[in-house]
Amino acid sequence: MDNDDKPVGQILSRRDALKLLGIGSAAFLASCAAPEQASTLVMTVSTNSALACVVRPELTIGPYFVDDQLNRSDIRSDPLEGSVSEGTPLTLKISVFDVASNSCSPLEGAQVDIWHCDAMGIYSGVSERGFNTVGQQFLRGYQLTDSNGGVQFLTIYPGWYSGRTVHIHFMIRTKAADGQDYEFTSQFFFDEALSDKVFSQEPYASKGQRDTLNTSDNIYNNGGDRLLLDATGNSVNGYIASNNIGLDLTDSEVGASDTFSQ
Predict the structure, then answer these.
(1) CA gyration radius for the chain?
(2) Residues in the chain with pLDDT values less than 70
């Protein structure tokens, strides 16, 4: 399977982030920045819920996005065939916030799409070397954020394919402050130890040893450490993972890369 396209976008610098939010340097928790990403800083934004916002990068959409407009929370099955993708259950919770006026406000009504490969590294809806899944829609879907800015998906722990580390694609579509369409696309990643644990069991184990880890993935190395999912649970009952994404809706440029996340 071909690699995803090269990363796009950038991580905001400390100066740019300060300018965007209009806050002083005392609001930054610089100690939380990873050494290799010194320009990526953690900031605390004053809100009722005391959210901590972290600068995040936009990452490539990749070649396997299919705009099926499939509104559902359980994305494991293929609607046409009725088959269900095998794998360790994963509940993914995403909350979306509007970062503006020195605050993080829940963003209601935003469309959040996710898509990823199955346990064998295969995507639905595409024709590739070795397989053709055109017309199938497993492991794809979208939800609209509720009044708390949240969506929830039931899926499986994604597998891997040659040249890429374990990841889940996501896209957020909403309206910018000026009424223009706003679209943000990126990818979530997983802790290596957790992936090793999951992949030691079937159906993942039959695929063999993966050839690309986070540190050797060119897309992950453009800020993926800021998009690691916080996952809890076990392989028997499944895992629950969550992440909060904030958007600067004052920038109506499609695919704007100025974003914040917890």
Answers:
(1) 18
(2) 1-56, 101-102, 251-262
Cα–Cα distance, 181 to 116 (Å, whole number)? 24
* CA 240, 4, 143, 254 torsion-angle sign: positive
Q: Burial level of 130, CB count in 10 A (0-12/13-18/19+)?
A: exposed
Q: Is residue 8 included in any domain, yes or no?
A: no
Chain segment 70-105, per-residue pLDDT in tens = 999 999 999 988 999 999 999 999 999 888 766 788
Write out the residue range of the structural domain in which residue 94 sits. 14-261
Residue 173 lies inside a defined structural domain of this protein:
yes
Distance CA 55, CA 53 (A): 7
Residue 2's pLDDT is what? 52
Position 246 in a domain: yes
The per-residue pLDDT for 219 is: 95
Residue 248: the pLDDT is 85
Our count of domains for the chain comes to: 1
pLDDT at 4: 52
Rounded to 5°, the CA angle 13-242-207 comes to 100
Q: What is the pTM of this model?
A: 0.79
Assess contact for 223 and 56: CB atoms under 8 A: yes
Strand pairing partners for 89?
Answer: 156
pLDDT at 173: 96
Place of tokens 């690309």: 212
Residue partners of 222: CB distance under 8 A and separation at least 6: 7, 57, 59
CA separation for the pair 63, 254 (Å, rounded): 18
CA distance 262 to 207: 33
- Looking up residue 182, the CATH number of its domain turns out to be 2.60.130.10
